[in-house]
Amino acid sequence: VQLQASGGGSVQAGGSLRLSCTTSGFTFDDYAIGWFRQAPGKERERVSCISSSIGNTYYSESVKGRFTISSVGAKPTVYLQMSSLEPEDTAVYYCAAVVLCPTWMAINDGMDHWGKGTLVTVSS
User: Fold this and answer.
1) How far apart are the first and last CA of the chain?
2) Among 112, 111, 116, which residue's Cα sits nearest to residue 46?
3) DSSP type of residue 93
4) For 30-82, how does the pLDDT look when each residue is reduced to its tens digit (9 = 90+)?
């Protein structure tokens, strides 16, 4: 199982970025895909999750309405479209293979694999 996040960069507040997560070694039948982030000196924050090729999606309150998660294919490739970015969104973003989105989002349980992250920097 492998996952790789990409697409990070530097953007001004109010701007947008799209992150990509490429995967191999599993399909949506095996795992859902989640995004989490970690800022310097802060705990990991679970941001979003998509649970199948049907597209059941979940968001944290801090990003709801600004971020959109989507997927292409059963392999899958997962995207995180981030809009109206704020300096507080600055972090390294990771994608992960999770067993069940609602459980992972609620109690941080069931994250089995994750890859290297991609840095997002939002300046004011």
Assistant:
1) 37
2) 111
3) E
4) 999 999 999 999 999 999 999 976 789 999 999 999 999 999 887 789 999 99
